Amino acid sequence: MFLIDCPYCGPRAETEFRCGGEAHIERPSPHGEVTDEAWSNYLFYRQNPKAEHRERWVHTAGCRRWFNVARDTVTHRIIAVYAMGETMPAAAGEPR
Amino acid sequence: MSGWRGKGGATIDRQRPIAFTWAGRSYAGFAGDTLASALLANGVSIVGRSFKYHRPRGLIAAGLEEPNGIVQLETGAATIPNVKATQIELYEGLAARPVNAWPSPQFDLLAINSLAKPFIPAAFYYKTFFWPSWMAFEPTIRKAAGLGVAPQDHDPDSYEHSFAHVDTLVIGSGAAGLAAAEAAAESGAAVLLVEVDPMLGGGLLATREEVGGQSAAAWRAAVLARLAAMGNVRTMPRTMAFGFYDHGMVALCERVTDHLPLERRIGPRQRLWKVRCRRAILATGAFERPIAFSGNDLPGVMLASAAQTYALRYGALPGRRLVVATNNDSGYESAFAVQDTGAAIVAIVDSRTNPGSIADLARSRSIQVIAGSAPLAATGGRSVKALSITRMSGHATQERLRCDGILTAGGWNPAVHLHSQSGGSLAFDQALQAFLPAGAAQNTASVGAAAGIFDLARAIAMARAIGRGEQLPVAVPARAIGPTREFADGDIAAQTAWLDFQNDVTVADVQLAARENFRSVEHLKRYTTLGMASDQGKTSNVAGIRVLSHLLGKPAQEIGTTKFRPPFDPVTIGAFAGRAVGENLFPLAHIAAHADHVAAGARMEGYGAWLRPAYYAKGNEAEEAAVAREVLAVRNAVGLFEASPLGKIEVKGLDAAEFLQRMYVNDVRNLKIGRCRYGLMLNEHGVVYDDGVFARIAENHFLVGTTSGHASAIADQFNEWLQCEWPHLRVMVENVTTAWAVMNLAGPKAREVLATLGTDIDLSPSAFPHMAYREGHVAGVRTRIERVSFSGELSYEIAVPWGYGAALWRALLREGRKFGITPFGIEALMTMRVEKGFLHVGSDTDGTTYPQDVGFGPAIGKKIGDFVGRRSTTRPEGRRDDRRQLVGLEVTDGGGPVAVGAHVLWVNDIEASRTRGWVTSSVMSPTLKRPVAMGLVAGGFDRMGEAVRVWHLGKVRPARIVEPRFYDPEGAKLDG
Hints:
heterodimer; A: 6 strands; B: FAD/NAD(P)-binding domain; Arc Repressor Mutant, subunit A
């Protein structure tokens, strides 16, 4: 069970959180001009790296706030936790 | 062989005899005994029968690695199958029996399997019993094989979960664990020291070695006294660390009352701990390996270290004339221990040519040492009578040693399980012929025997350094084991040389697997069952890997181990369940007037997270009759329904209207203050997700109604969109579902009842029309009322603060009596909404339903701007003209309602054709006195009036597609 350092509440057990999948997915717009292919990519296509991965998590049993997590999918080491809308802290690695 | 009670016994109390029964016979042991040590001391040599061949088996080990002494403990509901006798502390009145032996372990009818041994090699069952199918044979085979019997009754014991957070978790309390714990505590850390045994001390409890010039017992006592004096150390005996998970999470199972007589057990039987530690020190010790030779499973063949433990802790000995077979010095220590306890050592057979000074020590104790030799075959019927030995290189008998017991010391496997579970890597050590912890993936360090360090002084010094927080390089073991006698491929003796005693896997089985190309160690495990079942190969895995390595000529490091997974040792299911059993497994929420509903005869049922009235039965009234009576009461007079679980979400802020405009299919911005609107919500895939009524309380304040099941999910989605996609929108969202109880007053006389109860809200139709929202007071209590209707009648949803809900229910029933008020349940409401043709999301829609399929196409066409899911509804799939659309269905044969889920076919379709859709809702309408239904039908909107056929379980009925508005199609009743 992960120990996730919520940026607003501090370290808490994984069971208090929910993972919302890959972070930094851009929603295409305006809706009338988005191609079927672009929309399908947005809906269905996700990275599944055996490496560092950016995810968004929400502290459902706590502050209910969303934030980003950079996590190694092999070791489960959490490399960085950073706020929604922020880019990955430079010290931890370059943002995509 | 026959075990007996010799001298000594450090952890038993000979003044306190304890009576117990084994296989129905009475025996006596002492306080401090395990069931295993008591059986051994009583001369019970056969403790069970093997899994596959039903061969007689005796105890091999003294700890949790024991593969043979598997017992069924106690009887009836309290029975526990497959517990190891070595892990059961003896208590007064204990009753146990062997598993897998019928009628008794001494005489087992199924031992005939053993005669057929050459014909039942690995995978025999897979290869033989496949025609007509494995299923035909499985019941018989399962009965013959298998272990204990699961209890038939509910577990009478209780279990609980606890949590702990510590700086340093030390697992194992042998010399290294104690030293590491003390050093960590001295540095100020909060330390938790856990030990699976009832006593702290590990190997110190069964050694003749000295520590720092004093006896092991004295050193142990001194350290324990110092730990007890420190305020930052907690010790937990009878506690097994069984799982190492991510980020320093370790799971423990504490046996709270298992050691007490049944009648003295109070409170939880076991406690499951979830410990989060900054650092874990693994002092988990090592398991001794058996030596493979023909007949090495005969009762009387035992691990030398186990015999040492039985002798020194319990004064119990496996025989009177023992041969020790070893490849390292530890076998000599064991020999000396059993000799001191009273047994004679016939000889020590050492595979090393030059055993060194330890052999001189043995000779000084008048023990014959036969160097450069190894065991060849044990002989005897149901117990050992003699051991043939051979030169290391040969296969001919060199000498035959008469004995009644054989102790084997084949080297040691460090218990790397938790290290490996934590993600740490392993390295095969040539000197020890075992896998050692290498790189750590988390903040862990292995110490003592778990790290391959067997020298006590060195283990203690290194453990102290690691306990202090020093980083030490991976330790190099000092001690090397001697050579192992290998079996040639096809050697007939390999068929009776056991590796895995619990699963009856021999050296020959591994050879067969290798010949058949099962060369991956994971494949080897599945094919031969080596290392499966409750001991997970603690004594057998490394030996099996070595055999494979020898056959394939491939280093053991390259072969590797099977994956180590939790639990390290079996944990009872009850411990995982904790208190989440029975009603606590999925507790249902009670609505505000729960007790009143029950008192009124409500049949309460679970709907999602809530326990709600399905219907109210009068006397012996059947469900159908009750529902019809309730429907007619609402249609003709007035009914009362508690709608408290309806989702209520407050949406407030300068951008509230803009936000909801993006969440709903419908227009939100043009809704007037004080008015309500029915709205549909989609997920981003365009699928209809929820519906409900939203009200505009003020310019920037909305009350969003959701279905009862989706209240929190919708609130969560609002927050996700606001925080992740549109953080610039100034909106606050709060789920207030359980802050407001809601009573739904419905029927032509609803207004009169509400007026009689008393309210400061003007109820006249012009002042409070259909789809309006008002605030005020009812019976003196603050209220929010929405004039909305799911029944099709004049209807008020009256919300009051939750604590007033029950009082409002009672007051409405009291004031409504003279109007004929009738409480109604969910089933009546659902019947009425089908009569009206109102959509029920999840019943009339599924995971492929777009809004245009339920009649929202025109609304979307008129709406400008984006909303969640909009773009998805126009993907190619959404533009198909054969999409299934929600329509009404009427049977035309005069019969009863069609079945929900029945398939709709065109008139010309042959029966086997592809379905054209299906029935989603179907009721017998009490109002119309005929069945009405709705369904999703391909291109249904353009087929109004068409005849169709409805197929269900082979029967076909005629029906017609109609508009889904069966009752009051103009909605006149709503505006009453």
